Amino acid sequence: MGAGHATIAQTERSEASVIPKGVTWIKEAALSFEPAENVVETSGGKRIEYDVLIVCPGIQLDWDKIPGVADTIGVNGVSSNYEPHLAPKTWDFIQGTSSGTAVFTMPSGPIKCAGAPQKIAYLACDRWRQAGLLDKIDVHLVLPTPGMFGVPVFSKAQDAVAADYGINVHFESELASVDPATKRATFKSMNEGQPGFDIDYDMMHVVPHQSAPDWVKTSPLSTDAPTGYVDVDKHTMQHVRHPNVFALGDAGSTPNSKTGAAVRKQAPVVTANVLGQLEGKDPTDSYGGYASCPLTTSSKAMLLAEFDYSMEPKPSFPLIDTTKPRRDMWYLKKYGLPFLYWNLMLKGRA
User: Fold this and answer.
1) Is 56 part of the annotated catalytic residue set?
2) pLDDT tens digit string along 195-217?
């Protein structure tokens, strides 16, 4: 949506349409856990008892962590693809930029799809190049990491993509504050004692800090870390203190990248270990940390970064070189993955 290749209607379904048959759907929010009593309390005041609990609420966007962002997000050239209603705004701002300075940011700490902050930068540059405007726009990509990606082979490929577009990449830095009145973004160094810098922007894509939902953070299931994820074994997905509790997806403390591909590989492990738990057995299935980042580099090419806890490539298509941008991978991203998600993943078939 943020690059004009999809509409909101194409990316959403009613929740009722994806609830499996035979499941009791309780239309209330979970508010708290009482693992000592095997109870979940809901927003409607229900106390639901369980034999096994699977916690899968996703993570929250902490917009208030960067001063000034909440006051300007969605207006004056500042947007974010991390909110569905803002993604079309991103495309509007990209189309409306014909000169000046464009900034793309990424925060420190785990976020949903760590490749997304770079993907929108590449797609924007591709659009500006097609319109003959790229050489009139000063593009900056600000990353908190020391490199483009944690896996060297993919990092090298992204270095080449950024260089081809003429993007100014700032490593080990992150957005510290925004002044909407002057349209100035202030960045801080991730290295203590090192100076930060300011950039006056005309268009900016901001990615917020992210963490476990507040009600998870304050629960007996969370870690001691500020992010407050559900404290699980990174292989079995079983809670480290409460054996009949498991976590699935972004809210778990597993150190893998937070991607839909990770959830797809975690789900069978959790399923097998939950069934074992119900039979009084110890967990036997193990998750190896698989994650995948489809890194869209233009409106016709994508490289597919697949890796696990070893931070080494783990390709699903060994005979295809997915470490470089490819046209066939673009079609996989645009058509194959949505079909896989709606028709197979949500039904437990892939």
Assistant:
1) no
2) 999 999 999 999 999 999 999 99
